[in-house]
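Table S2 (text version). Query chain:
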Amino acid sequence: MEPRIQYAQTADGVSIAFWTLGEGVPFVYMPQLPFSHIQLQWQYPEMRGWWERLAEKRKLVRYDGRGSGLSDRNVADYSVEAHMLDLQAVVERLGIQRFVLSGPTSAAPVAIAYAVLHPEAVSQLVLWCPWTGRGARAQTLRALREGDWELYTEALAHGTYGWSAAEEAHRYAAYVRECATAEAARAIYSALAEFDVATVLSQVRSPTLILHRRQIPLLPGVEVAKDLASGIRDARLALLEGASVLPWVGDEEAVRAAIDEFLGEGQEVAAAAEPPAAGAFRTILFTDVEGSTALTERVGDAKAREVLRAHERIVREALKAHGGSEIKHTGDGIMASFPSATWAVESAIAMQRAFAEHSAGVGADSRPPQHGRAPLRIRIGLNAGEPIAEEKDLFGTAVNMAARIAAEAEGGEILASDVVRQLVAGKGFLFSDRGEVELRGFEEPVRLYEVRWRETA
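Corresponding structure-token output:
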């Protein structure tokens, strides 16, 4: 039975068509931009079979991106950010909190960017024959696309199905022309090509599988896949035999087997990224605005509140980008937790760099602030352990020590316990031994280490 087509509304007012199939873990399969039509696809036996088999073990979610298929076509914004709004609208409409995200071909940069911004939502990332719109071959395709739209679609179809499969290729070319207009396709490709995905690869935290077929003639071969795999930490690259960019053409079983194996192995990883149970091991981070009381006296309540709001915004952005969870606001600071010590240290470094950038050109504490701002000098403390979870808050020795460590730091410093330093050994961070320090409330001195974030810039 054909799935029921529904609609979601994006934050910028675009209607996005989608359907779901199957039950279980949500698997959001993004459109192959700009060629998607979730209704017409169902009328092709080979495509329909692909979706049905993918949905046998999970809840498959499919949608048409803006400008294509059954979604709104009269739109102006085709940027990566706009395409992320399409995805966000669908998952919010379905009430999905956490899901596997699959980005095929030209949608891969959008999937990567979304995974970076929403690490708490993307349990695993699957990239199929990723294409980034860059390189000599991409320029050749662009010239053909802009010169003769029908010839371009026919060449694309024959390159996908093989030059001997004339009937299938001609039928697929007609389908491609139904998905989007020539003008929309050109605008979408141009917008995607402006995004340099290499700048965000190191920030991907989701376990990632990159699939690519070796003999595909129309894409830049496996070079892009290898570049992505080397840029995304611990990404897995699976090179398969075949010459078609369509997974249902050729050895479809090998594609599904690789996906099933990856998702099966990732179940424990995905579960670990869920909100940990009481007593789970976590890394705790505290921030504290240095001299907040004196700041209020010097610049006044309104200006001091502006400084605190800037601090809160920067901290929350860093937490979102590095898989952290805000636990509570402490007045002039924020307490957060991470399932990974590496993520916590990376987040702390990102915070201090953002604070430094915010304060660039701002007067020192002893002088009037310039540009209507006051400098941000933030203490950050890190510790790891097994806190007690109770009513969305954390308690216990691990938490208390993290707070005390933050209090020992100077503005602009990150101090960490020896436990944190050992957990991230070999990850490339630089530490400076600050020696043993007596922390209030603790009988034994604690050895602290400064994270040298300026040297790692």
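Notes on Table S2: Residues 301-321 form the longest helix (21 residues). Residues 266-277, 363-372 have pLDDT under 50 and may be disordered.
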